[in-house]
């Protein structure tokens, strides 16, 4: 069965199940739908987005949550086809299909250094995290996200993981939102965001510098980490180039490029540090050539 047939069949089944108020069947159908990869054309042809879109406000929580998940996934599917603009007639109600701002709009501006894109925040990257239940702590996570994400092309999930981990480490060190906590947050944010510390940020994002270590570092130690990171980077640029020219690597949608938002990446793994440490994964975006690494 083609995807179009599958979608049409599911749509009819869903409408029947809804008429009969058979929530269980609806849930089953939604489960099967989430596995189907869609594109703008398919959505337009089948008009299934309208049915699913309505379900997002269904009184059954399970149903509405699942419908929301599907709408979100389909939007991502559509957005991922970055070469084609999404047709405007997709009937998923909220009209804001996220448009990816092409890197070129930034890169073409002569004032913008090549390495720095627009500032990245939890808002611009549309990431969400589980609240700590404490507003200042949540604010710290957002602040740290912007700090480690400054000029970074890494996957948003990776940045978020580091930001949460940094906050947690500081919080457990001081045990409370006291003056020491605030001072530490301020000093870390300043040093991480410092224009002359790109290597420090990268080391934290990649995991080469552990968050525990970072949180204990003096400003001098940070400067020395910066120098080491710069040396590593030189060696790695050569590595990326050599790899890129050589073997064909399989594409994956596991990662989301932090620069163009695309999900077409290739990756390879390599042992760059001592043998007892985990491998480093090098990811390259097929669309915009941005690359990052993590371990
Ligand atoms: Zn990219």
TrEMBL record:
Keyword annotations: DNA-binding, Metal-binding, Nucleus, Transcription, Transcription regulation, Zinc, Zinc-finger
Q: Which InterPro entries match?
A: TF_IIS-typ, TFIIS/CRSP70_N_sub, TFIIS/LEDGF_dom_sf, TFIIS_cen_dom, TFIIS_cen_dom_sf, TFIIS_N, TFSII, Znf_TFIIS
Region Disordered: start-end pairs: 100-123
Q: Where is the TFIIS-type domain?
A: 253-293
Give the TFIIS central domain ranges: 136-250
Coarsely, its chief localization is nucleus
- The reply on keyword tRNA processing is no
Compositional bias of type Polar residues: which residue ranges?
A: 102-111
Q: Which residues form the TFIIS N-terminal domain?
A: 5-81
Q: Where in the cell is it found?
A: Nucleus
Q: Which family does it belong to?
A: Belongs to the TFS-II family.
Free-text function comment from the UniProt entry = Necessary for efficient RNA polymerase II transcription elongation past template-encoded arresting sites.
Q: Which PANTHER family match?
A: IP08861P-RELATED, TRANSCRIPTION FACTOR S-II ZINC FINGER DOMAIN-CONTAINING PROTEIN
- What's this protein's name? Transcription elongation factor
